[in-house]
Prior knowledge:
- By secondary structure, this protein is mainly α.
- It has helices at 6-24, 28-46, 51-70, 75-109.
Amino acid sequence: MLFNSYLFLFAFMPVALVGYEVASRFNRKAVVVWLGLCSLVFYAWWQPSLLLILVGSITLNYLAAEIIVGAQARRHIARRWLFGAIGCNLLLLGYYKYLIPSLNGLSKLAGLHQH
């Protein structure tokens, strides 16, 4: 689904906006949950198989944030978890954004890519 597609403009966006309005009548957490779910649906529409990676990354970041908040008295532990979480996110980004496309490009050049 693209931002300029009819599906997005006339189905997804109106549902997301109405859901936002309804959720905003409850509390801020309801709005965050609604928008998070809408984001996951939008992302999954493009490539459902990668949704597990995104949910895993979100879970890792949430758990790391909980540990960091709980370890404020021990700043060295909080700092290690912060840098560890940032490192994991950068590794995921580097793997999927740079390494995979590079390997695909090399396999095409070597004639190993199947059409």
